[in-house]
Write a structure and sequence with these properties.
CATH topology: TIM Barrel
Strand content: 5-15%
CATH architecture: Alpha-Beta Barrel
CATH class: Alpha Beta
Number of strands: 10
Structural class: alpha/beta
Number of domains: 1
Radius of gyration: 19 Å
Distance between the termini: 16 Å
Shape: globular
Length: 371
């Protein structure tokens, strides 16, 4: 069995920001305060969130992504050569009501480089306020630099050869992962909702309109991630989170994993996957048959999109169904995604958030005993 960290109760990472953090962020943006008061408030909020995560029994904790605007922009935007611009066409949807949220555009405008550590200080602070659980860092997938636009969002003067672009992405990510390891990080989670976009006929059509073959681009992203994590240390766990988009309780893609399972589950060199399985949009568990023996799966059975608490009996039954395809010893449970992939958070209360995380822990203990 791998010595790399794996927990029966896990969570994707982002947590609802306390209201005062949202207010202070607004004050900082309009110039009422500078970064200092906001940063101090974030420190205090992260320390309090760690205590709450431990109190509900989680063996792994995050900083809630409290310092981030959303799951990717703060990380990707600190890569040299990248420019992030506002987008105008809402892409997310939710049952019952349209949600006007559009992912920002990520443009590579010059040669990519890493002028300074990106997430290392965030991890170091998290580790400094964590004593009885393992701190993990979440980082966006390198595919986010390319997916929305493909070749046209990568400057052709800086990169006449697109493979040189991918090579520089690998260099940036390898350097950052190594620095995180030097800081003591043993669990890096790579968030890649974009893999699920290859399930959608609509989104595949957009890829084709950009001049690419969807399955070839999917394979290229698998190789890209594998190259980025190829030099990780023997004690470092890499978890890859695949959902279908998550912004203000809305989503962007739907459908089972079957269409991408062989390429992702079968060929990604991750130690485990954190997968969305909270409702019918996620399909059944049959695609898990492509997960190689020895790799593990965190079943995202508890939704973060609404506050209704799941039935313990239903969760137990669904774990049994999943175990028909992946041995029970290689399974765990968690929420399907974060509670606040964007700063405003999902349409759910903090009380519901903590109740759901407590349910994850209690269910894991009932099934596996030790977490």
């Amino acid at each position: 069995m791998s010595a790399r960290p794996f927990f029966r109760a896990d969570h994707v990472g982002s947590l609802l920001r306390p209201e005062y953090l949202l207010l202070l962020r607004g004050y900082r943006e309009n110039g009422t305060i500078d970064d200092g008061p906001l940063h101090a408030a974030e420190d205090a909020a992260i320390a309090a969130a760690v205590v709450k995560q431990v109190d509900v029994g989680l063996p792994v904790v995050t900083d809630g992504e409290f310092r981030r605007e959303n799951w990717y922009a703060d990380f990707i935007g600190r890569i040299g050569g990248v420019r992030i611009e506002a987008a105008s066409n809402p892409a997310f949807q939710a049952a019952g009501a349209p949600v006007a949220y559009a992912p920002k555009s990520v443009l590579t405008v010059a040669k990519l480089h890493r002028p300074q550590p990106i997430a290392v200080a965030d991890f170091a602070f998290l580790a400094s306020v964590t004593t009885s659980a393992l701190p993990k860092i979440t980082i966006p997938s390198p595919s986010r630099l390319h997916f929305h636009g493909g070749r046209r969002v990568v400057d052709s003067v800086a990169y006449p050869d697109i493979e040189a672009f991918f090579a520089d992405v690998v260099t940036v990510y390898r350097s950052e992962i190594a620095a995180l390891e030097d800081a003591g990080c043993r669990y890096v989670q790579i968030d890649d909702p974009l893999f699920s976009y290859f399930i959608s006929d609509r989104l595949r059509a957009e890829i084709e309109a950009e001049g690419d073959v969807p399955d070839e681009r999917l394979d290229r992203y698998v190789r890209l991630i594998n190259d980025c994590i190829a030099e990780r240390r023997s004690g470092t766990a890499i978890g890859i989170h695949i959902c279908r988009g998550n912004a203000r309780s809305a989503w962007i893609a739907e459908g089972g994993y079957e269409r991408i399972a062989e390429a992702t589950f079968g060929r990604l060199d991750a130690d485990h996957f954190l997968l969305e399985y909270d409702d019918e949009r996620s399909g059944d568990f049959a695609p898990l048959r492509f997960v190689p023996r020895g790799k593990r799966v965190v079943l995202g059975l508890v939704t973060t999109k609404h506050g209704g608490l799941e039935s313990r009996d239903v969760l137990l039954r669904r774990i049994e169904w999943a175990a028909q395809h992946v041995p029970l010893a290689d399974l765990a449970i968690g929420p399907q995604c974060g509670f606040a992939s964007v700063v405003e958070g999902n349409v759910i209360t903090e009380a519901d958030q903590w109740a759901k995380l407590r349910l994850v822990v209690e269910t894991a203990r009932e099934v596996w005993g030790n977490l």
